[in-house]
Amino acid sequence: MATKKAVTNDYSEYKRKFWQLFMYGFLGIILLFLFASWGFFGKMPSFDDLENPDSNVATEIISSDGVVIGKFYKENRTPVKYHELPQHLVKGLVATEDERFYEHSGIDAKGTLRAVVRLGRDGGASTLTQQLAKNLFHGEGSKFILFRVIQKVKEWIIAIRLERQYTKQEIIALYLNQVDFVNGAVGIRSAAKIYMNKEPKDLTIEESALFIGMLKNPSLYNPNRKKRAKLVLDRRNTVLGQMVKNGVITESKKEELKKLPIKLDFKPESHSEGSATYFREYLRDYMKKWVKDHLKPDGTEYDLYRDGLKIYTTIDSKMQQYAEEAVTEHLKNLQKEFFINAKDKENAPFVDITPEQTQQIMMQAMKNSERWRKMDLNGKTEEEIIKSFDVAAKMKIFTYEGEKDTIMKPKDSIIYYKHMLQTGMMAMEPRNGHIKAWVGGVNYKYFQYDHVGQGARQVGSTFKPFLYATAIEQLGMSPCDSIIDSYFTMPKGKWGIDADWSPKNSDGNYRGTITLQKALANSVNTVSAKLIDRVGPKAVVDMAKELGVTSDIPEQPSIALGAVDITVEQMVGAMSTFANQGVYVKPTFIIKIEDKNGVIIDQPVPFTKDVVNKDVAYAVVKLMEGVTSSGTGARLKYGGGGFIQYDYSFGNPIAGKTGTSQNNSDGWFIGMVPNLATGVWVGNEDRAAHFRATRLGQGATMALPIWGIFMKKCYADSDLDVSKEPFEKPEDLQIKVDCWTPKKVVDTTAVPTDEPDMDEFGL
């Protein structure tokens, strides 16, 4: 009997210890959850954090026609709302990742119990809400088991709070906005754009299944990795199977979709590629200053890369595309001519400079290179760095046929790039100052310098309309007034010059008595010199300043021939004043800026001012129409000229002006129709590198074709509504603009000749 009693007491002791351990364990679990929720194991998200999760939302740059042309981001994430998601994507996600999503409140008890019993062999039983909690607040987490348990507990708590805070639909949208699909695609919207070049709402069933399949491991199941094509395809088909199992699609539909190959339209997004790259970088620089002047309600600065701003710009995505295409189409041809003309020439591409000057250019280029910067950081001496530029290395170089892999000495690559022609092009609406297209160079990845907003270059004859406007306003002249084109000398001391000045016409001829209209059309230098002698340099400088030119302009007579450096942006803004009936509108590129909630936080008002009266403005426009009807820009209407025959055949009125600087270093063309003004500059990075012959180096050959190609594309697109109408004539016009000209006798037996070189040379 004693033995039986002892055994009974032993069982009682076991029971007592079991329940004791059970209670301690249960209490420990409760305390673990309480301590975790109180933040003892690290900060937990507050109510406000759950309402506004920190999700690194990219700032979007939106064109005037509603196209996202670029983003600023640390993570390339652009949120999408639930109603913008296709239902097959939503249902496929639930079917694959969380079948009981609509039944649980953040934690799937059945799935969790199964995972515990099977020691996680069938998966971790994380619900979509738990995965969202992990992505939002601690990422992958620790590998150390104790910390991992604590993080799992925190996931559960956050998941429950998320379920209380958001609807099921909002949780799905939040989840898909948080997932990193790699290759710079964070969130389903960026992923759809980068991998398929479409919006999420346009994804097909098999494309949705592909993205759902990536969720398991975005790197492993990445469709852009061709070596894993079968693995990715099998994973996609597994998702299709889950969609059948959960009634999303039928078995027959699955079999049909399984046979489809994976098709991508892979377009990775980066700051150096895509549309309007130079404009986007100009905008970025502007926004860096903007955030300091436009603070949040709490007094802190907006984060351009995380706060999800929406910047609505004036850029038209189609015009931007046409401008970039026009630049490529013409410069691809012109660049070939440049290489041909420079071939076997001593010291090419440089012309008429000393060996010392060449060495100075090369040394500066080496010091500005990435190679120099990296080697300098690694402690290499200047001698070692310079020597490395003569050692051949593998590299990629820019060509108009695409990037090219080659082996080349770094010094030779510098020479190669010094041959490359550059450009700056901007189009804007004169009425409101809205910039519609901005091309700062030929390829931002290889050439970061912006020749629209940064690069001021000598403008040549394109400056002459400012001079003529001054003469018309101050001297009461008209385009039909006559002036003698003859040899002219301005004596030493006049207007502060320190030597006699005798400018010559580029063709070496004098035409005798001509009208102002013909003088501007043919860029007659002697007439410009006589006009500035009458009005004085200061009056012309004042006119240019009133027209929005902020560059430093010397008060010297030589500015009559364009011996002044001005940016494309300023030149287009100034010329637009004449098309806008004498009212200057400062070029603007932002319509409005919204925060991530759609609240307007800035809406700039363009700066405007009256510069000249309508009559003077119209008279200048008529002068400039003479350039394209019978002068240096006549090939826009009649064809001919240049090294390649472009067919423009414009029949509508065009106000324009060509320009060529000294030694053909800069070629310009400004062209305007009533609702669009566009300026183009073409030249090499270094002014010492240029065409040797004016036939190829003048503005009518280098820059005008880009304008012509661009405008043909714009006119072909009826959505753009670019005007072909005449410029509006002021009522009761007091200035004579319709000049009588004798009928031209044409010798039909004469052999056709090329258009004469009539651009001037600045001093």
TrEMBL record:
InterPro entries to which the protein is assigned, alphabetical:
Beta-lactam/transpept-like, Glyco_trans_51, Glycosyltr_51/Transpeptidase, Lysozyme-like_dom_sf, PBP_transglycosylase, PCN-bd_Tpept
Catalytic activity entry: [GlcNAc-(1->4)-Mur2Ac(oyl-L-Ala-gamma-D-Glu-L-Lys-D-Ala-D-Ala)](n)-di-trans,octa-cis-undecaprenyl diphosphate + beta-D-GlcNAc-(1->4)-Mur2Ac(oyl-L-Ala-gamma-D-Glu-L-Lys-D-Ala-D-Ala)-di-trans,octa-cis-undecaprenyl diphosphate = [GlcNAc-(1->4)-Mur2Ac(oyl-L-Ala-gamma-D-Glu-L-Lys-D-Ala-D-Ala)](n+1)-di-trans,octa-cis-undecaprenyl diphosphate + di-trans,octa-cis-undecaprenyl diphosphate + H(+); Preferential cleavage: (Ac)2-L-Lys-D-Ala-|-D-Ala. Also transpeptidation of peptidyl-alanyl moieties that are N-acyl substituents of D-alanine
Annotated transmembrane regions: 21-41
From the UniProt record, give the pathway where this protein acts.
Cell wall biogenesis; peptidoglycan biosynthesis
Q: Which Pfam families match?
A: Transgly (PF00912), Transpeptidase (PF00905)
Where does it live in the cell?
Cell membrane
Family, similarity comment: In the C-terminal section; belongs to the transpeptidase family.
| Source organism, top-level taxon | Bacteria
Entry keyword Glycosyltransferase:
yes
Presence of keyword Transferase:
yes
Penicillin-binding protein transpeptidase domain sequence ranges = 425-675
Protein name according to UniProt: Penicillin-binding protein
Tell me the lineage of the source organism.
Bacteria, Pseudomonadati, Bacteroidota, Flavobacteriia, Flavobacteriales
Q: Which residues form the Glycosyl transferase family domain?
A: 66-243
